[in-house]
Amino acid sequence: MKHTLLTAAALMAFAAPTFAAETYTLDSSHSQIIFSYDHLGFSTTYGMFSGFAGEIQFDAENPAASSVSVSMPVMSMFTGWEKRDAHFMSADFFEASADEMVSFTSTGIEVTGDNTALITGDLTLNGVTQSVVLDAKMNKADMHPMAQKPWLGFDATTTLIRSDYGVGNFAPFVGDEVNVIISIEAQAEG
Fold first, then answer.
1. How many CB atoms lie within 10 A of CB 90?
2. What phi, psi does 105 have (nearest 5°)?
3. For 99-120, what is the mean pLDDT?
4. Percent of the chain at pLDDT above 90?
5. Are 85 and 118 in contact (CB under 8 A)?
6. Which own/partner contact pairs does 160-169 have at CB distance under 8 Å and 24+ positions apart?
7. Dist. CA 117–CA 84, nearest whole Å
8. Which of 113, 128, 112 minimizes the C-alpha distance to 161?
9. How many Å from the N-terminal Cα to the C-terminal Cα in the chain?
């Protein structure tokens, strides 16, 4: 991460010499959250969220001082089967309204390696807020070749217990553990 951070720091110094941290906006067209869970032991079912909004305050000189916030409508969940999606939005699970949001706001970052960190934050889902830890990796901090502005890319993983968020119906037959894979890109503002 030191080499990557030095590259990012040089980019930040060139792009915004008076600020230690820079604001990056998520590129909604290249940011996804994939989730999976066990279905009765027979298969693994997958779903995703994409097209969500968020912001990263990235401090290349002190990555632990960075932060991230992301939000998305619950109803943007997509599993590839309309009846399943409708069931998830029903009273059996979310009983979601059109304006109900899922959100994540970081509360701390622990740098663990050259390009890795543990990002702790508050995840609010179904009206319940729990602290979660994202195991994150910075893929790239560089100038975007087409947009000609600084760009960041990250992947992260975590595991959630859906019953912790009040959507544990049919557990343990349908897995209570939900594996989450996140991949995001973000562009420097300005």
1. 12
2. -130, 120
3. 96
4. 84
5. no
6. 160/123, 160/125, 160/132, 162/37, 164/128, 164/130, 165/125, 165/126, 165/128, 165/130, 166/126, 166/127, 166/128, 167/93, 167/94, 167/125, 167/126, 169/92, 169/93
7. 34
8. 128
9. 25
**Whole-angstrom distance, CA of residue 163 vs CA of residue 166:** 5
User: Half-sphere exposure of 62 toward its Cβ, with a 13 Å CA cutoff?
Assistant: 5
**Phi then psi for 57, rounded to 5 degrees?**
-100, 105
The single residue listed with the structure tokens 């604001």 is 23
- d(CA 135, CA 181) in angstroms, rounded, equals 10
CATH hierarchy code of domain 2-188: 2.40.128.110
How do strand 21-26 and strand 32-39 relate by DSSP bridges? unpaired
Mean confidence (pLDDT) of the chain: 90
Residue extents of the structural domains in the chain: 2-188
pLDDT of 9 strictly over 50 = no
The length of the chain, given as a count of residues: 190
Which pLDDT tens digit goes with each residue over 136-182? Answer: 999 999 999 999 999 999 999 999 999 999 999 999 999 999 999 99
Angle at 119 (CA atoms; ends 167, 150), nearest 5 degrees = 115
d(CA 167, CA 155): 26
CA angle at residue 158 from 186 to 170, to 5 degrees? 125
